[in-house]
Amino acid sequence: MKLQVALDRLPWDDCFTVIESVKDSVDFIEIGTGVIKEFGVGIIKEMKQAYPEKTLVADMKICDAGKHETALALDAGADITTVMGFAPLQTIKDCIEVANQADKQIMVDLLGIRNREKIEELVESGADLLSLHIGKDEQKSGGLDAEHFRLVEGLNDVQTAVAGGINQDSLPAFLEHRPDVIIVGSAITKAKNRKEAAKTIKGMIK
Amino acid sequence: MKLQVALDRLPWDDCFTVIESVKDSVDFIEIGTGVIKEFGVGIIKEMKQAYPEKTLVADMKICDAGKHETALALDAGADITTVMGFAPLQTIKDCIEVANQADKQIMVDLLGIRNREKIEELVESGADLLSLHIGKDEQKSGGLDAEHFRLVEGLNDVQTAVAGGINQDSLPAFLEHRPDVIIVGSAITKAKNRKEAAKTIKGMIK
């Protein structure tokens, strides 16, 4: 199981300070959507140069122009780029095509998707990494639960990531479902001792 | 009826060259999603400083973190920011709240939305500017048609924008539906004579 740390709502320099503290415990570094929109893909490039051994996830949240935006992220150094599950299917297929050609990967963000048929359609279209995701704004009215995990149960050759307000207390409930990637944001980036927080969480998921 | 020119897949300098050519004919300047992700919101700031008299639309395509991303765009100088209609309803409400407080506006992008109930829900949540939008990737299999316009027919106090591969040939069919904003991208930005193309289109919509 991999630990992905999500960098969001942070100034440029802090993104690097955080990763320098937690690099021994994290596998995937995520540049969050807000950070990309604030600074552009230049921060993806600099992060990949600084930590080439880490898997770099660009949370592009692509909705349209799949080929163009995927290339934008991959050319900057991303290993994985996100597309919204509710984007037009053609957009998702285009993202997967561009990523496959570059031997990179697309993570499909399931924000707002609640029906199994849609997920099966995504998998048939080539999606092999799905992110169960309760957005920041939705977290106000409840987090991920067993119902979300049932959406992806029993799918073949599909990896899953989970994201949405995960911290040390809520983590054990997620671990029961054996996702492939655990995505943690503020429970690491806003911790008093980030290095310790990341180490503890990494220890829990091993 | 307003003419909005969409700047997408253009280098930073070209965005300004294009606007300098077409400024007499366009009302709204849109910084496209790809441009924002490539360069960050700094280009919104520079565009607003260069053309303060124009309405500046940041096509942020917000999916989550509505308050944060709306503030990011508005603080940079945007007058209107887009949110995806398929984002969680809480996200859309948050965007509208932040925009209203700043006396700015949210454009809800209806990409992928095909049911009237969803649109009525958006309007009840405070959406007052809806964008009928066939994405770049969807355009391969067909453009906007009368069925799309029926989605927004008869709604009170709601303005509509239309986007998706509109050019001089296809424009008359859109004009019949009397939208408030016509969004044109490559038919202006890739025209041999951009100034003339913008002038012709502006003349057609008046």
Automatic annotation (TrEMBL), chains A, B:
Entry-linked InterPro entries: 3-hexulose-6-phosphate_synth, Aldolase_TIM, HPS/KGPDC, OMPdeCOase_dom, RibuloseP-bd_barrel
Keywords carried by this UniProt record: Carbohydrate metabolism, Lyase, One-carbon metabolism
Pathway where it operates: One-carbon metabolism; formaldehyde assimilation via RuMP pathway; D-fructose 6-phosphate from D-ribulose 5-phosphate and formaldehyde: step 1/2
GO biological process, one term: one-carbon metabolic process
GO molecular function, one term: hexulose-6-phosphate synthase activity
Orotidine 5'-phosphate decarboxylase domain sequence ranges: 2-201
Regions crossing the membrane: none
Pfam families: OMPdecase
CDD domains reported for this sequence: KGPDC_HPS
EC code(s) of this entry: 4.1.2.43
Swiss-Prot/TrEMBL catalytic activity: D-ribulose 5-phosphate + formaldehyde = D-arabino-hex-3-ulose 6-phosphate
Family according to the record: Belongs to the HPS/KGPDC family. HPS subfamily.
PANTHER family the record matches: 3-KETO-L-GULONATE-6-PHOSPHATE DECARBOXYLASE SGBH-RELATED
NCBIfam families, per database record: RuMP_HxlA (TIGR03128)
Protein name: 3-hexulose-6-phosphate synthase
Organism: Sediminibacillus halophilus
